[in-house]
Amino acid sequence: MTDYINKITVQGHIAKDAKAFEKIVKFSVCTIDYRKQPHYHSCLAFNKHMETAAEIKSGMTVKVEGAMAYGKYTKDGVDKYTADIICQVIEIVDRGHAKAEQKQGTTPDKYNTGETEDSDILPF
Asked: 3-state DSSP call for residue 15?
């Protein structure tokens, strides 16, 4: 008898903060392929994983292990298909920009050069 396994492991960056609902937390993990193309993986966390998932902020690096789940719904008469990772393990690998955001109280900006508006009045 052959055993079939539905398991996926994804490690990547969080582009947006996790969205918490009553019984579920949703977030996306961004990975980059060999052609430097981004891929976004939709993740769903239930039950005991909700607490960890709710802590996920933009800029963090996470590792998610889980099972793939596929769904279908109809919106405006058009069939839409979904592919989600049902989280079984969520590991925060690096807090990245989220750590700096908590310390400084500002939102990280990839275009921020570190200069402030007052930088033009400095003598050096």
From this structure: coil
